[in-house]
Write a structure and sequence with these properties.
GO terms for molecular function: [glutamate-ammonia-ligase] adenylyltransferase activity; [glutamine synthetase]-adenylyl-L-tyrosine phosphorylase activity; ligase activity. It contains 42 helices and 14 strands. It is mostly helical and about 950 residues long. Helix 24 (about 510-525) packs parallel to helix 27 (about 555-560) and helix 25 (about 530-535) packs across helix 26 (about 540-550).
Length: about 950
């Protein structure tokens, strides 16, 4: 490349000429080198000084432009006295290589930041390894109580931890070690003293200014208790500190923490343990208060020190971009692990993908960050100074502007001002209070006057039918210890939130009921300031809360019992599409990562509650049909059952080993099998197993039973699988802080309540062939294998298909189905002159199910396709395809099912029995069902008392539906 390939390098030729005069003329004759050196000279006196002192480095740069990394740094006992010089020369060479590649446009700003980070890590690791060897020779190796060797863990915080270190930055370090102990050398030291001395010498070796300058400035002030704290702490002491003393700014600092030297694996393990301190399990809008306080302190510092030209700390500077991204990560990262990255640019991308930042905002911030960081690097590259302030010197301004390709300093300044204005706008929008004041000031004044003052007429004006009762409830609430003991900040939030909620409740039809629901919720979240912050900061969440509580007693109860669900009100995913079938399982399976069963159940139930809450909101908002919601609830139950089965297996195997060659499965009946589960529905389950048979023989006692668990406490197969089924039922019903998973009904197993909890596959087959009632075969129509061994599921499906596919006499079948339906209706139908029982009433959901089950049992021998679907819409379609239903009748039944199911889900969402005042749509649905029943020759409308001997079976069938 010739010199003409580069544009003029500088407006100040004497600066370049003075730099070039330091090199031999023969060297400058190298093609292209003079122009490159001229451009570097404009940007960095430090780089020119380094290549003059290290000619070999210039030769490398002239040969390959620094494409290959520098040779590794070697520090050992043989060159102990040269360690400081070797470190400083290595860092200077590595930094000059970065200047070269930046100025010549060979690397983008991300590569330069990554290169600065890697260089710091190389120096840290080389220095620590050399010092460790030196300490081991004098003091031995620190060992814990069990004799395991311990190493220092060096955590890098800030930009070093984030992998985005600027050119001449200091490095923020914190020293720690895994466990207490003592070194095993001739002059032993306790772990704390050993690692403190080691850390101090490491900092000195890197930081001390010598004739060769410095390697890296080291800042240890971010350790627990700052300069007053111990230099190195054990992990246990660190955890105790963060639990008791940890402050908001430390959450930001440790958000980017990363082990950079020493025992890296132990460091990563500690950060996993520290994660709950950094990322709350709920949406943490309380983090904004901490950020506002930090912003105010920074603003005061900027004003006091006149830092308006500081591109890091000033308005619209680098720190505002960092704080904006980190605040959003802290708010949402507890719920979404994809937002916990250390890199700022990757964090901005993740926040955009999760819909917490718009694409335009992300793009503006990314562009601004790159420009600001590149300018920051150039300011520091000039003389290797840790500066973030725009230069006052005209020559420096000219050099920085020209080096970045600007015509003059005013051009650079104009672009910079525009960039900073965009950043400041985005940052201020994040911190701006998003509160929505009550429309009626009277309610706010009334609330603030409680409990002694306040005029209840404000409640009457707000729409309360019984203002005295509402007034009494609010006064009682204010007097509770939870309200009295609130901090000033939390009480201020409550004072802004309550009037909005009180006004919204007053607009409801049953204002007193809604107010009672809201106060119950508030009572449960008073100790969680972050939940009050969420409602205070986010009007959208407050609006969704009111809507959910007004329309659904079910959701109101869930929110009051598990305030964690408040996060769902603002989760960006709530308004989007709900998971497909395959997405439920991996979300639930995350609980299996927890080895403690109680903790796993808690995590699983929180996931289940959150997903069912989203399904309920989508149903209430009309974003999806009730059919889709019922199907999703069943898919969710499938995923939960699969996880609970694995938890039960894990516990049983630990206690009793395994049964070799055995298989186990769970069959779902009723609404679970038919994929039409409701909110709060129980699960009808049947447990099956298959194990190798033990051959009889004279020596059977002397041989191990192949169908026994091979553990210190072996069980034979029947008892092993009975224990497994019992454990599954127990786990599903275990009450945790998130409630219980599901209520279970196992009465549909062979022989009902008199039969074994778990059946062998062969006995189940025998029962279905020889002893099962017709109504049990009806129930089998909707049954579905939901969890367990796949091959057992295939075998069970073969039994089901064989059972349902047998030829049946039409008259006898019709008589059995008619008789059972009439008995059920006589016992269970709650319809009367004022309303209709959606489930058991004439023309209701159970009538439709009986009709379809009858058609499957009647025709499956000739039409095997009827055996495939379990859900009502699928069964209707299959019956229409086989000719069992006419097309017009099938269309009417599809519509009828949708109407009745939607009405039923609406009732359960509001904790009402499935009973409605008949309207036109319900009337049409009933008529369609009645017409189809009569067309099939069935008669369900003759009421006769159920014979005593069938009552239990009737109850079981009812419950399965």
């Amino acid at each position: 490349m010739n010199d003409d390939a580069f544009p003029p390098a500088t407006p100040d030729s004497p600066t370049v000429e003075r730099a070039l005069a330091r090199f031999a003329p023969a060297l400058l004759a190298t093609p292209g080198l003079r122009a490159k050196l001229a451009r570097v000279a404009v940007a960095s006196d430090f780089a020119i000084h380094t290549v003059v002192r290290q000619p070999d480095l210039l030769s490398r740069l002239a040969a390959d432009d620094g494409a290959d990394p520098l040779p590794p740094l070697r520090l050992d006992a043989d060159n102990r006295g040269d360690w400081p010089a070797l470190l400083r020369r290595h860092r200077a060479a590595g930094s000059t290589r970065l200047v070269w590649r930046d100025v010549l446009g060979l690397d983008d700003v991300e590569a330069i930041l990554a290169g600065s980070t890697a260089l710091a890590e190389q120096c840290l690791q080389a220095a620590l390894a050399a010092l460790e060897d030196d300490f081991a020779a004098r003091h031995g190796v620190v060992r814990d109580r069990d004799g395991n060797p311990q190493r220092l863990v060096v955590f890098g915080l800030g930009k070093l931890g984030g992998g985005e270190l600027n050119f001449s930055s200091d490095i923020d370090l914190v020293y720690a070690y895994a466990a207490d102990g003592e070194s095993d050398g001739p002059r032993p030291l306790a772990a704390e003293a050993y690692f403190a001395r080691l850390g101090q010498q490491l900092a000195k070796l890197l930081d001390e200014v010598t004739a060769d300058g410095f390697c890296h400035r080291v800042d240890l002030r971010l350790r627990p208790f700052g300069n007053a704290g111990r230099v190195a702490l054990s992990f246990a002491a660190m955890e105790q500190y963060f639990q008791r003393e940890g402050r908001d700014w430390e959450r930001y600092a440790w958000q980017k923490a990363r082990p950079v030297a020493g025992d890296l694996a132990a460091g990563e393990d500690f950060l996993v343990a520290l994660r709950p301190f950094i990322y709350r399990r709920y949406l943490d809008f309380g983090a904004l208060d901490g950020l506002r306080a930090m912003k105010a302190a920074i603003a005061a510092e900027v004003a006091r020190k006149d830092l308006a030209d500081d591109i890091k700390r000033g308005p619209g500077g680098i720190r505002e971009i960092e704080f904006l991204a980190q605040a959003l990560q802290l708010i949402h990262g507890g719920r979404d692990a994809t937002l916990r990255g250390r890199s700022l640019l990757r964090a901005l991308d993740a926040l955009c993908e999760a819909n917490h930042l718009s694409v335009d905002s992300r793009d503006r911030l990314v562009s601004a960050y790159r420009q600001l960081r590149r300018l920051e690097n150039r300011l520091q590259m000039l003389r290797d100074a840790q500066t973030h302030v725009l230069p006052d010197d005209a020559d420096d301004r000219s050099r920085v502007g020209a080096g970045l390709g600007h015509a003059d300093w005013p051009a650079l300044r104009a672009q910079l001002d525009a960039v900073r204005a965009q950043v400041a706008s985005e940052f201020d929008a994040l911190l701006a209070p998003r509160r929505r004041k009550p429309d009626a000031g009277e309610l706010a004044a009334y609330w603030l006057a409680l409990p002694e003052g306040g005029d209840a007429s404000a409640l009457a004006d707000a729409g309360y039918a019984d203002p005295a009762a509402a007034d009494a409830a609010l006064r009682d609430f204010v007097r509770t210890p939870g309200v009295r003991d609130l901090s000033d900040g939390a009480r201020a939030r409550l004072d802004r939130v309550v009037p909005v909620l009180v006004q919204a409740a007053g607009a409801a039809i049953d204002s007193q009921l809604v107010l009672r629901r809201l106060l119950a919720l508030l009572h449960n979240i008073l100790r969680r300031a972050s939940y009050l912050a969420l409602l205070d900061e986010q009007p959208a969440a407050l609006s969704r809360l009111v809507g959910a509580v007004v329309r659904s007693a079910f959701l109101a109860e869930r929110l009051a019992a598990l305030p964690l669900l408040l996060d769902e009100l603002l989760d960006a995913r709530v308004a989007g599409a709900l998971p497909e079938r395959d997405a439920f399982a991996p979300q639930c399976a995350q609980a299996l990562a927890l080895d403690d069963t109680e903790a796993a159940l808690m995590a699983l139930n929180e996931t289940r509650q959150a997903l069912s809450f989203r399904i309920a909101l989508a149903t209430l908002d009309g974003r999806q049909h009730a059919r889709d919601s019922a199907r999703q609830l069943a898919w969710l139950a499938d995923a939960v059952l699969a996880v609970v089965l694995q938890l039960a297996l894990r516990e049983l195997r630990r206690a009793h080993g395994e049964v070799p060659g055995a298989r186990f499965g769970i069959v779902g009946y009723g609404s679970l099998g038919g994929e039409e589960l409701g909110f709060g529905s129980d699960l009808d389950l049947v447990f099956l197993y298959d194990a190798p048979r033990v051959d009889a023989g004279d020596d059977v006692q002397s041989r191990p039973d192949p169908a026994q668990a091979g553990n210190a406490r072996p069980l034979d197969a029947p008892r092993w699988f009975a224990r497994l089924a019992q454990k599954i039922v127990a786990l599903l019903g275990t009450v945790t802080a998130a409630g219980r998973l599901y209520d279970i009904d196992v009465r549909l197993r062979p022989d009902g309540g008199k039969g074994l909890l778990v059946s062998t596959l062969s006995s189940y087959d025998d029962y279905q062939r020889h002893r099962a009632w017709t109504w049990e075969h009806q129930a089998l129509v909707r049954a579905r294998f939901v969890a367990g061994d796949v091959s057992l599921g295939d075998a069970w499906r073969a039994i089901r298909d064989d059972t349902l596919g047998r030829p049946r006499g039409g008259a006898a079948l019709r008589q059995d189905v008619d008789a059972m339906r009439r008995r059920m209706r006589a016992e269970l139908d709650r319809s009367d002159g004022s309303g209709f029982d959606l489930k058991q009433g004439e023309g209701g959901l159970v009538d439709l199910e009986f009709l379809l089950q009858y058609l499957v049992l009647r025709d499956a021998a000739q039409a095997p396709s009827l055996l495939l679907p379990r859900d009502t819409p699928g069964l209707i379609d299959a019956c229409a395809a086989s000719g069992a239903l006419g097309d017009d009748i099938a269309a009417g039944l599809r519509d009828a099912h949708g109407v009745l199911l939607a009405a039923g889900l609406e009732c359960t969402l509001d904790r009402r029995r499935r009973w409605v005042v008949e309207n036109e749509a319900v009337g049409a649905a009933r008529a369609a069902v009645r017409g189809a029943i009569h067309a099939a020759g069935l008669v369900f409308d003759e009421r006769r008392a159920a014979p005593r001997e069938h009552t239990s079976e009737m109850r079981s069938l009812h419950d399965a539906r």
